[in-house]
Specification:
Layout: H1 4-15, H2 19-37, E1 46-52, H3 53-57, E2 69-77, H4 89-100, E3 109-111, E4 116-120, E5 124-133, E6 139-143, E7 148-151, H5 154-167, H6 172-185, H7 194-202, H8 207-212, H9 220-236, H10 260-282, H11 286-297
Parallel strand pairs: 2-5
Antiparallel strand pairs: 1-2, 3-4, 4-5, 5-6, 6-7
Length: 330
């Protein structure tokens, strides 16, 4: 059964990052930005802060237990001609500004390949990614390990995500959060980076599918059934790791973010989950369906405490389009 009210409750109480933490993230990023703007050495180069990744895409989820959650922030900076031959200087200088700050110098902060990470104890960490628009119009971030530029189009990815989510009737983001929950909280397909998972799931959403079946993405469980099922079909047709292009059209790929063995494990796990989702969705009685959904997502998947007609996505009454039953593996 679909049990859309259960999914909405599960997302609200278990999967989604709570509003208090989202507000705290906003406040902390604002404070970091003001501190960098006030730095005597690089403050004049810092132009803007732009949410990136799961924060910008609204696919961020609650962390496992007491683990940190993370957020990426693009730090728009003016191009400095003196650093043209050494792009990693941008990361070094942002790190230096934090190291000079009266509060942040005493907090864990480190230089990564593409960012500077600032860690709040037992709470969150923020990755600050220097982002520069070069004189020739290229949008770039820094690869510190190789001391080179990398092309990017962060707004393009966010726009693509918004378009795909609208096509999926507002349910793609929720499906991504559910699949990230399986990865992080249930330990399934570990090693698959969020940007790859997000791109592969988003790539399965197509407007033409709604022409054949207007209800293809009508609620969370139906969108989950179809998007994961379509992803399984795609993966089963590709035994070797396929190239995953940045959907913004930047021309780069995310291929360096995983290996063949990681891909093979992901492929097997999605095949298994697609079959489990199919069984839970098409179970004929509610008790069996709840048991099967809980087998996938755990005991947190349950009915709202007071189920009412005000649920965001009430159970649809239209007929369900038949879906080819996926095989089992793993």
């Amino acid at each position: 059964m679909q049990l859309a009210d259960h999914f909405n409750e599960f997302l609200r109480t278990t999967v989604n990052l709570g509003q208090v933490k989202l507000d705290l993230l906003d406040t902390r990023v604002d404070t970091i930005y003001r501190a960098l703007k006030a730095d005597e050495k690089i403050g004049s180069l810092v132009l803007d802060k732009i949410p990136q990744g799961s924060w910008a895409h609204r696919t961020i989820i609650a962390p496992v237990g007491e683990a940190e959650f993370d957020a990426d922030v693009m730090l728009l900076m003016t191009e400095n001609p003196d650093w043209a031959q050494s792009p990693k200087t941008y990361i070094e200088e942002v790190y230096g500004a934090l190291h000079r700050h009266s509060a942040y110098k005493n907090m864990p902060h480190s230089r990564k390949c593409r960012c500077v990470r600032l860690v709040y104890s037992n709470s969150m960490h923020v990755d600050l990614v220097p982002y520069i628009v070069l004189a020739d119009g290229r949008e770039v971030i820094v690869n510190r390990d190789q001391n080179t530029w990398e092309y990017t189009d962060s707004q393009g990815f966010t726009t693509w995500m918004r378009t795909q989510d609208q096509t999926a009737q507002g349910n793609l983001r929720k499906v991504i959060r559910l699949m990230k929950f399986l990865r992080d909280h249930k330990g399934s397909f570990t090693g698959t980076r969020s940007v790859i998972l997000t791109t592969l799931l988003g790539n399965q959403v197509h407007a033409y599918k709604k022409f054949a079946d207007p209800g293809y993405y009508r609620d969370v469980p139906t969108a989950l059934l179809h998007i994961v099922g379509d992803l399984d079909t795609y993966l089963q047709a590709n035994e070797s790791k396929p190239s995953v292009a940045d959907p913004s059209g930047s021309g780069v790929t995310f291929d360096h973010r995983w290996e063949q063995n990681t891909y093979s494990y992901f492929r097997d796990r999605i095949h298994k989950h697609a079959a489990e989702i199919y069984d839970a969705y098409y179970a004929e009685d509610k008790v069996t369906s709840v048991r099967l959904w809980q087998g996938i997502f755990g005991p947190g998947f349950k009915a709202p405490v007071a189920a009412t007609s005000s649920a965001k996505f009430p159970v649809a009454t239209t007929a369900v389009t038949a879906v080819a039953r996926p095989g089992r593996a793993g």
